[in-house]
Amino acid sequence: MPTVGVNRDKLFEKLGRVYTDEEFDQLCFDYGIELDDVTSEKEMLRKELASQAAKGAETKLAAEAAAASEEVIYKIDIPANRYDMLCVEGIARALNIFRGTQPAPTYKLADMAGKPLLQMVVKPETALVRPFVVCAVLRGVKFDAARYNSFIDLQDKLHQNLCRQRTLVAIGTHDLATVQGPFTYEALPPEEIKFVPLKQTREFNAKDLMQYYLDNDQKLKKFVPIIASSLVYPVIYDANRTVLSLPPIINGQHSAISLNTRDVFIECTATDLTKAKVVLNTVVTMFAEYCERPFEVEPVEVVDAFGAKTVYPDLSCRSLSLTADYVNSLLGVSLPPQQVAELLNKMQVSATLGADGQALTVLVPPTRSDILHACDVAEDVAIAYGYNNIVKRIPPTATQGRELPLNQVTEMLRAEVAMCGFTEVLTWALVSRAENFDNLRRPDDGNSAVEIGNPATIEFEVCRTSLLSSALKTLAANKEVPLPVKLFELSDVVLLDAAKSVGSRNERRLVAVFAAKESGFEVIHGLLNRVMEVLGVPHKDEPGAASAPVSYHWAPSDDPALFPGRQAAVYAGHQAVGVFGIVHPEVLSRFDLPYPVSALEINIEPFVFDQYYNSLLQPLSS
Amino acid sequence: MADLESNLLQTLNAQETIADSGELAKTLGVDHMVLVGTIRSLQASEMIVAEDIDHFRYALTEESQSYLTAGSPEAQVFDAVGPNGITMAELKAAVPGEAGDVGFKQAMQGKWLALDKSGGGEPRVVRKVESIEDRTQALLADVAAGRELAQSDAENLAKKRKLIKPEQWKTYKLTKGPKFALERKKPATDLTFDMVAKGTWRTQEFKEYNFNAMGQPPAGGHLHPLLKVRTQFRKIFTQMGFEEMPTNQYVESSFWNFDALFQPQQHPARDAHDTFFLTKPAATPSDRGVPGDYLQRVQSVHESGGYGSLGYGYSWKLADAEKNLLRTHTTAVSSRMLYKLANQPGGFKPAKYFSIDRVFRNEQVDRTHLAEFHQVEGLVCDRGLTLGDLIGVLNQFFSRLGLKKLRFKPAYNPYTEPSMEIFSYSEQLGKWMEVGNSGMFRPEMLRPMGLPEDVNVIAWGLSLERPTMILYGIDNIRDLFGHRVSLSMVRKNPLCRLGL
């Protein structure tokens, strides 16, 4: 969820009234945005300073902090699909319309009859790297420091969110007075592109510039990989071969906008045309507010590689048809159609009632790209009506409650094992490869564990295929606890399984460990016997076991994690379901455990059956 | 010691009264102080009664001890002077030190000696009487023998000459106490099998129990607090008629985790830094588990919409949908279940589902974040459900958790519309706290599955860890879930009273 910092007093100026923090918080709550923090530049720098000071004194920052403004800043969380609220202009406009203090503006294109349209000509090579461009012009913009900063901040916010760090869309804004149309959008070998980039004084070729940014620019270097490997780089020239921008990296210094800029040329290059249009619409609808003719935008004609001409931006309202009945049936209210239309006006959506008094024709303005479906319109009605004014109803759906049998057996078994004196632990399914294999002296055949490609930490390389390592880690983290320590866990391991559509399945296991001055092998053995007793599974040599649907037994085994001669495999019928034994001393030392430990680990899924021994397993997918 | 105690008790039993413990000590040949220890101990057990007898006497000082044999200082000086007298210097040599000084002074006072200055030159000390009686020595001998002195003599020797010192001590007159017996019984600390069997508990004395200490902790096992909370949530759901979904499958395809939920492929949640993508098994082939026609409908609703939607207008990639991951939410399971519900034999039937299981996020672990945590999810799928039904069911559910005051904030979620964040007023903290998220699944998710037009799904979710941390006062999530938990935390936590 993006957070936008706005100057409180500027916001209140636009809202035409002063709010207390509590009142403003309530307004935000009703609209579905969130007042996250009340701070100031000084305060933010102070906080940064405090965190820097912890690492080592940072004197430059201290000076900045001392000079910084104490004006109050509201940090406001904006829903991730409301790109039109990523600047103070958009927030104020949305809230004003919501409160009914301002009508929704009509965004329109300038009447270009008899006037030549600015042109952007797209060269076919751009298809190799970044195929789309859309443009617009804002005429007679009046900037001041606050507006200018907001204009820059909005582009930043869009780049971070909708533009996906400039991969999908990149915005370039230029002082139109410094360049000359028609413009061309080209893709050229990097060595051939030469210009003075923004904030630089000398000319670079694009290849050197990429290296320069990689070496020297913390902010820009992360964008370099977007085009670095391409044979050709995208570039925009004016009629005099002046470079406007090298998207999505940097603009040229020549056409840089300033506080004095009046006519702003905006270009958005993209790999996703839909998003490019949304980005362009967002920028122009927000800042057309400051144009000589407010909310009027001058269009630009984009000529694509095939010579087809399209005029941007598209500020037309999308039309959607729905009925008040639909809205009422979705929300559980009974609003008259007229009221639905009025409520929608508060959300910048105009709605007109059809002749039948039921059908609503809704016009979605270019600022509301988040509206995809009538249900989005219904939500707007709900917000304008007030979520908390909707009368609650208990759903009439009559169904039977039921636990998943696997989980129900797990619940019962947890209680039984705890009754045996074992304490329950709960550990992570994600472990390091070493913990899962090497440290247990178990070989990694490369074909048993699910592997994570991009773990944020080395702790999480694979999904565990056994619960034992986690139980041993828990013992190691609790060495100060007086012996004996008895722990258990009933959780899932994750196994590769080619027979499954996703290539893997979970398996519910029980692990129990006993740690003491002596191994306690017989304690763990006794737990196995007790667990089978409560599961209703007789030992195969018990009288009557032959006629039981399932019986169990154990036989000497050779699990490398356990001590030779002091371990056994557990079988349900002929199926191996687990092991128990004394943990191998080398394993103990790798888990940093000073005392002997005995362990039991068994798969409990074969024992998830009803009283007639019918299996109750119900896998989610085949 | 036992002998001494026994002797004392025997004697007392024979004599009924022991007039003076001092005498008894002499008889028994022990130091009286040793006997006092035994007397005190028997007295504490109320076996004997001891009455104080105060004693007073004079004793010789260390200095006067020597005068017993050598004679008093004045007698020594008198002897040294001899019949012919001597000089002061000679006297000092003959009776050195303090004895000489004191003896000379005393002999002069008693007019036993005189100074003769007649010879001119150095004066000589001469006898004034022929013989003396050394009374001081005799008095000291009396004290040493324990004889009493006349008051004036005693005061003179004690205060003026400091040759004797007063001594005080106690002995005891002993009589039988209420619990007198020839042998002391040790108080027992516990009632034993033996006492019960032999009936000796009737006469056995018991040591007082120390009620200030805690009892012994039981040796039994313990259940983990997070799972106790899970158990209560499971009960609340099943009591409300919800059926548990099979969530025991952590590996999921992007298709069911994201695409089926109408979550666009460029959504930030699908970035590698938020989601664990797998290298093994890397992908779920789309021809396994997802019917081709459904896959087609999902692709087209993303790309160009349908069912009244505009869609996202981007080029949907099958390869992205096939990528395997560790599910980021249990809603991946909900999407599979809803698809089944729409396509089951006999057609759609209403359902109420819940699940509580692990989900995974590729995050750095810190005080408030884990890479895996438990998601609690509930959903109702039926014809004609409304936002009012969602508000109703949320009020029902959260009031079971003791959160009776709810309000709802508009929110955004890619697969629900309308969406609501759930806030609850905490009386303890005096503020509104976010307790969960909810919404109605989007038609772009439900219609491609084949759910009938009038079927809506209302759903909500929350984490299991957060309410548990609040309930048990835990402020670091790693203290709750993972191998670094303290076992004493697991052992000491109380019942989970949610849902009572």
From TrEMBL, chain A:
List this protein's GO terms for biological process: phenylalanyl-tRNA aminoacylation
Q: Which reaction does it catalyse?
A: tRNA(Phe) + L-phenylalanine + ATP = L-phenylalanyl-tRNA(Phe) + AMP + diphosphate + H(+)
Q: Which GO terms describe its molecular function?
A: ATP binding; magnesium ion binding; phenylalanine-tRNA ligase activity; RNA binding
Q: Which cofactor does it need?
A: Mg(2+)
UniProt keywords (A-Z) are: Aminoacyl-tRNA synthetase, ATP-binding, Cytoplasm, Ligase, Magnesium, Metal-binding, Nucleotide-binding, Protein biosynthesis
Name where it mostly resides.
cytoplasm
Query: What domain of life is recorded for the organism?
Result: Eukaryota
Q: What is its EC number?
A: 6.1.1.20
In what residue span(s) does the B5 domain sit?
315-392
Subcellular location(s) of the protein: Cytoplasm
InterPro entries, per database record? aa-tRNA-synth_II/BPL/LPL (IPR045864), B3/B4_tRNA-bd (IPR005146), DNA-bd_dom_put_sf (IPR009061), Phe-tRNA-ligase_IIc_bsu (IPR045060), Phe-tRNA-synth_IIc_bsu_arc_euk (IPR004531), Phe-tRNA_synthase-like_B3/B4 (IPR020825), PheRS_beta_core (IPR041616), PhetRS_B1 (IPR040659)
Would you tell me the Gene Ontology cellular component terms?
phenylalanine-tRNA ligase complex
Which family does the entry's similarity section mention?
Answer: Belongs to the phenylalanyl-tRNA synthetase beta subunit family. Type 2 subfamily.
What is its quaternary makeup?
Tetramer of two alpha and two beta subunits.
What is this protein identified as?
A: phenylalanine--tRNA ligase
TrEMBL record, chain B:
Subunit structure as annotated in this protein's UniProt entry = Tetramer of two alpha and two beta subunits.
| Protein family per UniProt | Belongs to the class-II aminoacyl-tRNA synthetase family. Phe-tRNA synthetase alpha subunit type 2 subfamily.
Q: Which UniProt keywords apply?
A: Aminoacyl-tRNA synthetase, ATP-binding, Cytoplasm, Ligase, Magnesium, Metal-binding, Nucleotide-binding, Protein biosynthesis
Cellular compartments annotated: Cytoplasm
Enumerate the spans annotated as Aminoacyl-transfer RNA synthetases class-II family profile domain. Answer: 228-494
Matching entries from Pfam families are given as: PheRS_DBD1 (PF18552), PheRS_DBD3 (PF18553), tRNA-synt_2d (PF01409)
Molecular function GO terms recorded: ATP binding; metal ion binding; phenylalanine-tRNA ligase activity; tRNA binding
Q: Which GO terms describe its cellular component?
A: cytosol; phenylalanine-tRNA ligase complex
Coarsely, its chief localization is cytoplasm
Q: Which domain of life is it from?
A: Eukaryota
The name of this protein is phenylalanine--tRNA ligase
Q: Does the keyword ATP-binding apply?
A: yes
Cofactor(s) for this UniProt protein: Mg(2+)
Organism, as annotated: Edaphochlamys debaryana
- PANTHER family, alphabetically? PHENYLALANINE--TRNA LIGASE ALPHA SUBUNIT, PHENYLALANYL-TRNA SYNTHETASE
One of its GO biological process terms is: phenylalanyl-tRNA aminoacylation
Q: Report the enzyme's class at the first EC level.
A: ligase
What does the record give as EC number?
A: 6.1.1.20
Q: Which reaction does it catalyse?
A: tRNA(Phe) + L-phenylalanine + ATP = L-phenylalanyl-tRNA(Phe) + AMP + diphosphate + H(+)
Known InterPro entries for this protein? Answer: aa-tRNA-synth_II, aa-tRNA-synth_II/BPL/LPL, Phe-tRNA-synth_IIc_asu, Phenylalanyl-tRNA_Synthase, PheRS_DBD1, PheRS_DBD3
